Amino acid sequence: MRNNAPETGAANFANGVPSVPPRVAVRGLTMSYDGRVIMGDLDFHVNPGEIFVIMGGSGCGKSTLLRHLVGLETPASGSIFFNGHDFTKATETMRNALLRHFGVTWQNGALWTSLTLLENVSLPLREHTRLSPREITDIARYKLAITGLAGFEDYMPAQISGGMVKRASLARALALDPHTLFLDEPGAGLDPLTSRLLDDLLLQIRDSLGTTLVLVTHELSSIFAIADRALFLDTATRTVGGIGPPAELRDHSPNPRLRRFLTRGTP
Amino acid sequence: MPQKNQSSKPVAALAAFDCAQARVTLSGEWSLKNGFPAPDALLHEIASARPALATAAEPAPAEVVTIAFDCAALGRYDSSLPAYLHALNEGARRGGTRLAFAPGTLPDTIERMLSLATARQGAGTPEAAAGEALPGSSAVPGVRAATARHLAEGLFCRIGTAAARMVRPWGDALAFVGETMTALANLARGRARCRFPEFWFFVQACGVDAFPIIGLVSFLTGLILAYVGALQMRQVGAMIYVPGGVAISMMREMGVLMVAMVLCGRTATAYAAQLGSMKVSEEMAAYRSMGVPPVEYLVLPRILALVVTIPFLTLYANFFGIIGGLFVTTPMGVSLGQSYNMMALTMTLPNFTSGLIKSVAFAMLIGWIGCHRGMACGKSSEAVGDAATSAAVLGITLVIVADAIFAVLFNIIDFF
Q: Can you list the domains of chain B with their CATH numbers?
């Protein structure tokens, strides 16, 4: 099921040290809410072209970590580097320039409900490029076609199903050819078949476009199907409970909570 | 994406056409920044270059034209190139022709990106998706509060944290004022990203749709004022002054106040609920994560719609209030002619304009409060209800406070 990373994005390792700079690097990140630490001392990196999964039990702070990664929350301490640039200390201009390279999909799609699917995908292009309306429409139609929504351009988000909302959200996130795509629970609320099709689509996107994918999920089937590496947020220690290829973590991790998580509690 | 050091305009040109096969040269730099040519131009070139096919006695129902690409002069490209080829395909299909791209003539990445779109074409038809499930429930992960360890330990730290927490809403409110002012300044300079279709929608929602309720409330207010005035004036035989009194009250105070009250209950709550719901469904986060300021997109059209419509609503309310007064004074013996003459005496510029001046300030206040309560909303359906309630309560309170300030100011500058 897993494919090799494309030549544009694969990271080569020598003695465990990546030879290309990581796409995303998190150093000593502590996330807090209302003065309380949710997760602390997080250290990890995501390589270009990698499918990286952030996993953990419900309420452990996976989505909060994602919000920190895309700059919607301010860390209590620590830094987040994006292509070597410190995102947490970036100026407003720098920040907006970096955001231009992100694509984000949210747990429930978060499509703008007053806009059609075509307008939803067109909006980032209108905001960040100087393309003509005709060019924007062509690109938006293509992105919708990529995600299997050709023919639905004029539909409103309320008129389509949950799986289609997720795919339209993905099309919107891909609008500006982002280097990195952040996905919050892409398979949540979907039936197993649609969820599997979405996994296939994510693999195809990575393989065709060389996009780096950072997913937040706790769906084991998706984790084993598409993740190159996975990060486990451990609620017991409130920090990273393990990081590596999912199958390796399941079979060889010294962390029993992580092994239990990946085997649905079976010994 | 392949990188070549070439920077020129993207071009797709027909090099030759023979035996239903077109040779197309792709050159230049294809980038989302630069734009790309219209596919119709190439389609037209292909159509005019194949007279033999066009004049064939029995053309096939769906002609197939194979295109072989020459990419020797192709520079850097991103998804604008597959988007162009996709649009080319679509354009040809609409014209009754099917395009087949000769395999191996496009770069591998482009072929893979195109196959992504074409492979999923069937799955994307409305019929194919008719059976898909409707959206499932989603849960926002909570934060473990009770067992979490504290960042700030010790008495002084806790007092400081509590104080900071109390002050934070005021700081947020001030920041929102700043953001709104910046957005308005950007709008004045023509740099704001205000969506005008939405502006007209809100003009309809907060203005035109409010006419019936404002008409009724204002009519009844004028009627009540006339009854109260008549109670005193009748005793001294000065009933003739009642219509003028009603007109002054409506123009200076009651007309604009009634409009503001209705808008607080109708529009501020709607704004708070709309924006609050958008926050719950992460639509707001989607704007921010794409570097699009939600204040310019969501707040500006709402506030501007109120500012534009409220003077008209105020004039309308004044008119209906005066009519309500006449419904009381006319049966009590003040003729319409006398009423007109007395009211004409009260129609001074200060009386006429003071209500209108206040209306614009109230519109800013109501719009700002409604939007702020929505933007500051929590992430639950209960929080949306709270946001709407607080928008109404805060709106009414601040409108009355602002009205009192205006009364003092007008008194100081002798604006009577």
A: 11-118 (3.30.750), 174-412 (no CATH)
